[in-house]
Structure formats: structure tokens, C-alpha cells
Amino acid sequence: ALIVHGDDDQVVPIGNAALLSAKLVKNATLKIYKGGSHALGDTSKDQLNADLLAFARSVRSKSVSANAERETV
User: Which pTM does this prediction carry?
Assistant: First the structure.
């Protein structure tokens, strides 16, 4: 799981959401956007899109590797 959160979110404070979620979700990756507000999709869209794409590619890569291992066994 990928968790992204701005450290200056005034709507949903980071301590009440992302930091707690990162502890609760097994193998979670937490990305904190310094100075990030609640509207990361507007204020940090390029970085957010890059992080989401990198995460999706990493999940796909792990899936392809797992499938390849199953086929060779």
C-alpha cells in the first residue's frame, strides 16, 4: 500500500491519518510531502503522479516476477 500525505494538511492532520495508517497497514510505504496541504492533487500533482506511477510499476513488477517464479517451478 502507498500512503501519501502532506505534512501541512489542516483538514486531516497527518498524525490522525497517515502516520497511524502507516503503522496499521502491513508493508505500507508512507510518502510525506513537505509543506503539502490537503489538496496534493492540485498543489503537488506532478510529484503525486510520479509517485503513484512508480508505485504501480513496482506492484506490477512484483506481480510479473511472482508469476514467472510459479511458471518455472
Answer: 0.78
